[in-house]
Design a protein that fits this description.
Elements (H helix, E strand, L loop, with lengths): L1 H29 L8 H27 L3 H5 L6 H28 L2 H14 L3 H27 L5 H14 L4 H21 L2 H29 L3 E2 L2 E2 L1 H8 L6 H34 L2 H6 L1 H5 L2 H14 L5 H17 L1
Antiparallel strand pairs: 1-2
Length: about 350
């Protein structure tokens, strides 16, 4: 059953990629949309596609595996203390992400255009629609898909291997250099919060708060740029003027590295302290059960049995990952074509 679930999840990932590419194209032709569509229309198209594709595939996965939605997704109530800690983790995540983005813009100048494109989309849309599509829709539907379906399907796989695959899937699915680099880091934090809270509500909360912080700061930054009249024309950011104003491309690599390191240290400290508190809270709440689960594999199997089990997985599971390989090859091609 485990092998079948992995094959199913990987196959549904391919289906999701196909639908995310085809639905906007079909909508553009049907409604005669073009590249100059407004931010509101673009967000509606993006949000609607996410709801239909990610939500629909999640329900399809539950239907095929013949289990209840809440059982597959592990949606359990979390405490007020956990919510507070997650919000602090969100702040640390954002600060660390500023360092990641700052360094990635220096190493990969193309990421500046990605960042400006995302900012222009958000800033040319209404506040209410932005909060709905940028904050709430991803927080629920992306978590259900990436931390719901795939954590369920990959249950029993080596933890490090599982986390790497899930993070890589989540990062590459965003499809641009700017987000791939940042989301790779975010994907790891979301998985740890999901693990330490024991509920998808934990990662949903982090996802929502993190996106809300980014969205609000983006709006505030636009207001400031309008105030000082630097690179903003009718709500659209001029990448060249904005980059010059922000000095994103003119600083030396050593200065960019030093600046990023400061954000890494501050954000990393906040993350380390509060993720550890989340873990300790879970251990206190569940007693020895958490520790026993972490060591269940070593207690259940002897050395010889573990060796046989690993060989069995290696020998029989290769075909289960064929759709995953096709997905990564397809995403690589799409990203290359994009640039």
């Amino acid at each position: 059953m485990k092998n079948k679930k992995i094959l199913l999840a990987n196959s549904l990932l391919l289906l999701a990629l196909f639908l995310f590419v085809s639905i906007p194209l079909c909508a553009s032709k049907i409604f005669n949309l073009n590249e100059s569509i407004s931010g509101n229309i673009s967000l509606l198209l993006s949000g609607g596609t996410s709801i239909i594709v990610l939500g629909g595939i999640a329900l399809l996965y539950c239907r095929i595996t013949k289990r209840k939605f809440t059982k597959v997704m592990v949606i359990k109530k979390i405490s007020i203390k956990q919510v507070f800690l997650i919000m602090v983790v969100s702040i640390g995540t954002y600060i660390f992400a500023v360092g990641v983005n700052s360094l990635s813009m220096k190493l990969f100048p193309i990421a500046i255009k990605d960042g400006m494109a995302i900012s222009n989309l958000l800033n040319s849309s209404s506040l209410l629609l932005g909060l709905l599509v940028v904050v709430l829709v991803p927080a629920f539907f992306e978590e259900v898909f990436f931390r719901g379906i795939f954590l369920d399907a990959y249950e029993g796989i080596n933890k490090k291997t599982k986390y790497f695959i899930l993070i890589a899937i989540f990062a590459t699915f965003h499809g641009n250099v700017m987000q791939i680099i940042y989301v790779f880091f975010l994907g790891y934090i979301l998985l740890k919060v999901r693990e330490y809270t024991g509920s998808l509500l934990g990662s949903m909360t982090l996802h929502a708060v993190n996106n809300a912080i980014s969205f609000i700061i983006s709006k505030v930054a636009l207001s400031y740029m309008k105030l000082v009249n630097t690179g903003v024309d009718n709500g659209v950011i001029d990448p060249a003027k904005a980059a010059t104003t922000a000095d994103a491309t003119n600083v030396s690599f050593s200065v960019a590295l030093l600046r990023s390191s400061i954000f890494f240290l501050i954000g990393g400290a906040i993350l380390y302290i509060n993720l550890r508190k989340l873990k300790e809270y879970k251990e206190e709440k569940e007693g020895l059960e958490y520790i026993e689960e972490e060591n269940s594999e070593s207690l259940e199997y002897g050395e010889g049995e573990k060796y046989i089990l690993r060989n069995e997985i290696i020998n029989t599971d290769i075909k289960q990952y064929i759709p995953l390989v096709i997905y990564f090859v397809s995403m690589t091609i799409l990203v290359v074509l994009r640039y």
